[in-house]
Amino acid sequence: MLRRRFTLDELEKMTAAGILEEDERIELIGGEVVPMPPKGNHHEVLKAALNWHWARRTPDHLRFVPETTLRLASDSYLEPDFVFFDKETGIAGLNAETAHLVVEIADSSYAYDIGRKAALYATFGIPELWVIHAVKLETRIHRKPSPAGYQATSDLSADRRLVPAFCEHLAVTLGDLDLR
């Protein structure tokens, strides 16, 4: 059976025409529309705590945006939980070349996020990717991207300090967050 590949432009037109809902949880990977699972409560609580933490600590020259469409190519985009970039880049200029750190929060999608999605981020040269397991509060940090995947990964528990390579002011210890 032949599969139809789509472009980002085509999906945007389908959304404008009402074929796709504006808040529909999908990503586009190599032209394939990939449905995303619903977010669980652990995901939302952790995302809110990280948003609060980073909003208070982000230096003036940097910005971050939660749940944005990160355009990687004409046939690929992902919707990470957080993306960090330089202020002067602006959201309009945000892409794989301008992103410093991408953070994915996962529970049921953890294996997918550290597998297929991590490989995609590496292929496009995202310098640093964190995949945080929302229930276990364990983080896999990916660094040194290459077309073959990330060349350096490390797994850190909730009591370990997570420090972005590009800005230590954004460090966080998940176990210290208020997760109520």
Description of the structure:
22% of the residues lie in helices and 33% in strands. By secondary structure, it is α+β, with helices and mostly antiparallel strands. The protein has a single domain, classed as tt1808, chain A (Alpha-Beta Complex). One of its GO terms (molecular function) is endonuclease activity. It comes from Rhodomicrobium udaipurense. InterPro entries: Nuclease_put_TT1808 (IPR012296), Restrct_endonuc-II-like (IPR011335), Uma2 (IPR008538).
What would a concise description of this structure say?
The chain is an alpha+beta fold. The chain has helices spanning 8-16, 41-57, 110-123, and strands spanning 26-29, 32-35, 62-66, 70-73, 76-78, 82-86, 99-106, 128-133, 139-146, 149-156, 161-162, 172-173.
Please supply descriptive tags for the structure shown above.
Nuclease_put_TT1808; two-stranded antiparallel ribbon; 12 strands; tt1808, chain A; 3 helices; endonuclease; 180 residues; six-stranded mixed sheet; Uma2 family endonuclease; alpha+beta
Which segments are poorly predicted (pLDDT under 50) over 5 or more consecutive residues?
none
Q: Strand order of the main beta sheet, please? A: 3-6-7-8-9-10
Number of helices: 3
Number of β-strand runs: 12
Shape: globular
- What is the quaternary state of this protein? single chain
Radius of gyration: 16 Å
What is the CATH class name? Alpha Beta
Please, what is the average pLDDT?
A: 94
Helix content: 10-25%
